[in-house]
Amino acid sequence: MPILLGLAWCVYHPGLHGVFLFDDFANMPALGSTGPVTHWDTFFRYITSGTADPTGRPLTLLTFLLDGHDWPTAAYPFKRTNVLLHLINGALLALLMARLATSFFVVANKREQTRVILSSITAATLWMIHPLFVSTVLYVVQREAMLPMTCVLIGLLLWLHGRNQMVQGRTVAGFAWIAIGLFGFTGLAVLSKANGILLPMYAVLIEYLLLRRSPQAEGLSAPAGPLDGKGVPRTETTACDCPPAYRRTLALFGWLPSIAVLGYLINTGIQGALHGVGRPWSIGQRLLTEPRVLFDYLDLLWMPRPFTPGLFNDQIVASSSLLSPVSTAIALFGLVALLTAAWLLRRRRPILAFGILFFFTAHLLESSTVALELYFEHRNYIPAMFMFWPLSLWLWDVGRHPGEWIRMKIALIVILIAGLATMTHARADLWGNGQQQALLWAKLNPASARAQANAANHEMAMGQPRAAEIRLAAILRDHPNDPQITLNILSAHCQLGGMTEDDLRLAERTFEHLRGGESVIFHWLGNAIALSATHSCPGLTSQAVASMLDATERNPRLRRVIGRMQDIYHLRGQLALSLHQPDEALMWYQKALALRPGPQMAFEQAAHLGSAGYPALGLRHLDSFESYSWTKPATIFGMPRLHAWVLHKQRYWDNELVYLRTTLQGDLKYSDAKNARTLP
Q1: How many CB atoms lie within 10 A of CB 515?
Q2: CA–CA distance, 453 with 460 (Å, rounded to integer)
Q3: Which of 54, 187, 265, 393 is geometrically suited to a Cys-Cys bond with 398, CB 3.0 to 4.6 A?
Q4: CA-CA-CA-CA torsion sign (528, 531, 535, 536)
Q5: Do residues 538 and 501 touch, judged by C-beta distance below 8 A?
Q6: Which residues lie below 8 Å from residue 485, measured CB to CB, with a gap of 6+?
Q7: Mean pLDDT highest for which of 332-341, 481-490, 638-647?
């Protein structure tokens, strides 16, 4: 195993020199958003800052502190830790499969035990060096997908140990181990990412497919329990030997949470059907689309390739009916056929049935009724962990006398490992080169607006704005109102000499009709205000930016969202300030603040006024802010509420207010003194 772990490290090593990508920039800046994480106050502010899931995923945030304490920072240590965590998961997976195999098969001698161990290591290695998971391991933020697997594997190992303890009559000790495994580590998994809540369901699946099976399963010898240390099998793991205390314990820590999760998913589907899901597709369309997505995942797993569409999924078109597209009906039929086959094979081929059912069970949360985006490669990280186990058992003739083909099978194992390692190394090398990666992704995703915009960004960074313009013009025909395409066209034209009236009309049309990507739009408009003030982009004048803001405010979708209207008013204030119109800027800032009073925006606006040379107006804005009630913690359930409570207990905003007010007062005194010296 150490040799194979070393192989996996070498395979992934070229990708360690890559950079942060996409969602990394939405999550990693929390390391420095309230100051470097160097003492307990900043630690608690940071660890409660997560907004994904109700929990905020604090365990994942905690592990990021192994690699950095401030932002910006280097990506290398974060990627290195991800790879090490991946290797740990591979080792734990091999151990778990070895434990399950020795509980499933009669292992009568050391030779058979060796084949069991080798088959487990082989299956774990095939998973560990599969090229599909490069986009999980080398994408820093997807540590959120990797840590739940660590917790799942440890939880299942502890549950198996507790199960054996209870079977042997050690009821109290067994109960404790099972509680730690299925309850404690489910909690830790959920604190990493919500899909960790499926851990109890995995235990139930293992129990009823592998640990309680027919003695004639797979035509092998009668099932045996754990080894006694000398390779002699015991039979405590058969269904009839499970004591009532264990069955009650499994009902409490396995069945009850599983039923609760299924109830949640059913209720989520009903609510989504009744009230909508705020996506371009309905919940019914999502359920029709996901079979297609799942079969695409299976294709990537069983027909591996060095390069895949990667992080881009906007080219996935939701199914609108069984025949639109036709592949919907085919995929749905295939899904039913696979599940039916697994159910029918559960006695004769239980490990094969288990591999199939585990894959679909592990996809329940992210590929069913929860209104997440339709497709992401990293969602296969846990579901695929037993995918290659049945193949590996067959290759090593586990449970059978070694046949005459055993040497050829061993050669096939070497070929499989070498082939996967070669593909993964090539893909990791691509992840170490951001420019090549962007251009290849654009080639592999010709219909993805995101992929083309990303490639255009890199072309402009390389000083090739004309190539970026040609690329974007081609995709604009199919995505006339996509904000990323529009904004990158404007940026390319800035590099090529300036914006035209057609560019400005395109921007106004896009902003008025956009149905997503608002944060990108507002970030770009903020930069556009700075460019218009310095005349860095011909044609991008303050009047042009004002017209874009007018178009954005006409967007009926944005007008219904208080936070977006607040952003628009805030940008209007910034624009007025760039035009040296401080009173108008203050008016817009106060109008934005009135929509949703909060310290972060108020302090930012007051600081803008002060840094622009108007500290008196900054102080007036702080006075307006203090007239609102803002000291109460947020009422949102989950981590946002806890984060607000931490800030409140630390008097964080109070201290920031005092500091800012003191700074503005000092600036005002300096300005008054300077003016007094210039008077005749």
Answers
A1: 12
A2: 11
A3: 393
A4: negative
A5: no
A6: 449, 452, 453, 472, 475, 476, 479
A7: 332-341
